[in-house]
Protein: Transcriptional repressor
Organism: Niabella pedocola
Amino acid sequence: MDSIVQILKQNNLSVTDGRRKILSLFLNSNGALAHADIEKNTHSHFDRVTVYRTLQSFVDKGIIHTIPTSDNSIKYALCKDECGEGHHHDHHVHLVCTRCGNTFCLDNVVTPTVKLPREYTIQQVEVVVKGICKSCNNP
């Protein structure tokens, strides 16, 4: 059984052509993907609603996670093994390259600890750093 089918079945998702193609994009990507990247690279006629629903089901199951962008849109990246349905453990920094525009998960860089007053509860910490990626630094 190929890894795409295995991931979908482990997460109790039916194996559809759309899910296979979209998950394949993530598995073969070095960085995060925007909705437009997915539409452009699937080379098929999935409607926007199908792509959004697929992405949301992948987020809900802990297969991918969201990354906020400076223009208030969202990019998506693969989760690591410790994520699961309803529980994301993506406590790492994201880097947006100011040269190529790609977004990368920096898995070995842990988000800083944020201490809030007792009457506040943290639900998620997102750290996005702008800089130059290793590919652009080593042309």
